[in-house]
């Protein structure tokens, strides 16, 4: 087993400096680590351990890609917008996805135990700070409150919208609003 550095083909790492990588040959082991090297032809892991295997020419390198979604005012026009940051790109520049998104709520469907399953109560939907065991999360519910880009005829109105586990009251204005929601299964965790 080599030390902390593996040699690769010329330019194989491209822009993967300072990213989390998974190295495996699918037979003898796998290593998940943060690439700390500056080169594009060597993999360097932080000190504190050796590689799980003596990787050869059949090894594969995979990147761990992470994105964060949030609601913020658009830097281009000030409208509330669904934004994201891709932690795998240089500079981590925010990306605008959908304008008019005023609020986003997320709940996590967690299987609590075998008793819940026996009673056909397979999941309880909770906020992130109330998840007991992230390994038991089987689904995610997402709700977006979206407003119209333009004012409508009539007077100003303040409305309250039910979004998953809470009520959201809009500001008093002349825009239409609607809640859109979806429940998504976590693929690798369904039985």
Task: Tell me about this structure.
With 191 residues, this protein is mainly β. It contains one helix and 14 strands. The protein is 3% helix and 42% strand. The strands form five sheets. The chain has a four-stranded antiparallel β-sheet with strand order 10-9-11-14, with no helix packed on it. The longest helix has 5 residues.
Structural class: mainly beta
Shape type: flat
List how many beta strands DSSP finds.
14
Specify the number of helices.
1
Proportion of residues in extended strands: 35-45%
Spatial strand arrangement across the major sheet? 10-9-11-14
Indicate the low-confidence ranges by residue numbers.
none
Radius of gyration: 23 Å
What is the secondary structure topology, with strand pairs?
Layout: E1 5-7, E2 20-24, E3 30-34, E4 42-44, E5 60-63, E6 67-73, E7 80-86, E8 94-99, E9 101-110, H1 114-118, E10 124-126, E11 137-147, E12 160-163, E13 166-169, E14 177-185
Antiparallel strand pairs: 1-4, 2-3, 2-5, 6-7, 7-8, 9-10, 9-11, 11-14, 12-13
Q: What is the gist of this entry?
A:
This protein has 191 residues and is mostly beta strands.
